[in-house]
Structure to design on (351 residues):
């Protein structure tokens, strides 16, 4: 879990009273989406403190950067720093997903096709969490090449069909410098199979030319194109189709979206999927839960949002599943549901 641009703050750095009041403010604000006043907190919580005592402590918490007050007579709201401390405390312990969420997520197992499972998972996350569910299919760079087939489209054009990992199929169209007949095509497929099967695509791009070079028979050998261009031929860009978004209606119905700033940011994100794709590529580089809150996000469009993501596995390949929502979210529920979904996807895709 990362917290960019924000100093770590331990629970021990707050007094017991400060911590209790901060936790109460966060809980109240998450539930109501309204700034929290000292009198409200005195009545609604079991802190056993007077409004004056709570007000003074809230003022101290504001000075320390945990609360924000728009104007003197207004209640206070948690800052990104407050949510970070809240999340760090939550993630020290394992939390089970609510039974209702577990039941709702059963439907993602109805069809073992990766794309369909991912679509159902993101839709379920949107409905369960009231945030925007999203996911990305497994990144194939770490996928092991399991099969090579060649299809001749014309005398000088072939289609290379790669079976990667646990049944993912990718195709590459290759323009040859010289005509090739069926016999030579079969021989070419055999040599590619012999030299490349069992390697990851990353390894093929890096070492393919060396592995194939001594198998080239002559200057007209179609294997030459793979020796010369392995580093680019086996590079698969992740297009917009790789990013799956759930329904935005649940997220857009939240109180924050009465503010046009939130709405414009959400529209900008969904219109420019490539921004999220690049961000998710970075997150997929390592396993586990990853939460960034408001100003911790590197994209300006996410300054008012929290991203909660987890990786799932398909063999050696990693994919991403998670939600985007306002920084005011039910973190305990969202984290438990995202973690459960990633585990469920990994279990299904490992079969």
């Amino acid at each position: 879990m990362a917290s960019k641009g924000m100093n770590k703050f331990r629970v021990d750095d707050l007094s017991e009273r400060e911590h209790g009041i901060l936790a109460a403010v966060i809980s109240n604000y998450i539930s109501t989406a309204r700034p929290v006043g000292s009198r409200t907190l005195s009545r609604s919580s079991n802190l056993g403190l007077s409004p004056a005592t709570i007000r003074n402590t809230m003022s101290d918490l504001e000075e320390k950067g945990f609360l924000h007050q728009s104007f003197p007579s207004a209640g206070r709201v948690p800052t990104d720093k407050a949510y970070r401390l809240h999340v760090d405390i939550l993630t020290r312990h394992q939390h089970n997903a609510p039974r209702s969420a577990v039941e709702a997520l059963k439907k993602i197992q109805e069809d073992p096709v990766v794309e369909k499972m991912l679509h159902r998972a993101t839709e379920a996350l949107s409905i369960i969490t009231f945030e925007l569910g999203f996911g990305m299919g497994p990144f194939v760079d770490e996928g092991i090449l399991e099969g090579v087939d060649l299809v001749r489209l014309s005398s000088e054009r072939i289609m290379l069909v790669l079976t990667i990992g646990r049944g993912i199929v990718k195709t590459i169209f290759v323009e040859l410098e010289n005509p090739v007949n069926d016999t030579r095509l079969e021989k070419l497929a055999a040599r590619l199979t012999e030299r490349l099967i069992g390697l990851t695509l990353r390894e093929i791009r890096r070492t393919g030319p060396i592995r194939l070079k001594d198998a080239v028979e002559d200057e007209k050998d179609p294997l030459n194109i793979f020796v010369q261009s392995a580093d680019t031929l086996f590079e698969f860009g992740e297009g917009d189709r790789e990013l799956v978004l759930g329904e935005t209606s649940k997220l857009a119905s939240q109180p924050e979206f009465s503010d046009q700033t939130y709405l414009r940011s959400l529209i900008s994100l969904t219109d420019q999927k490539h921004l999220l794709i690049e961000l998710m590529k970075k997150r997929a580089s390592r396993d586990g839960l990853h939460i960034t809150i408001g100003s911790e996000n590197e994209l300006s469009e996410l300054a008012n949002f929290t991203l909660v993501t987890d990786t799932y596995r398909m063999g050696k390949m990693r994919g991403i599943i998670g939600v985007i929502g306002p920084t005011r979210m039910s973190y305990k529920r969202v984290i438990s549901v995202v973690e459960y979904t990633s585990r469920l996807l990994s279990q299904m895709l490992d079969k």
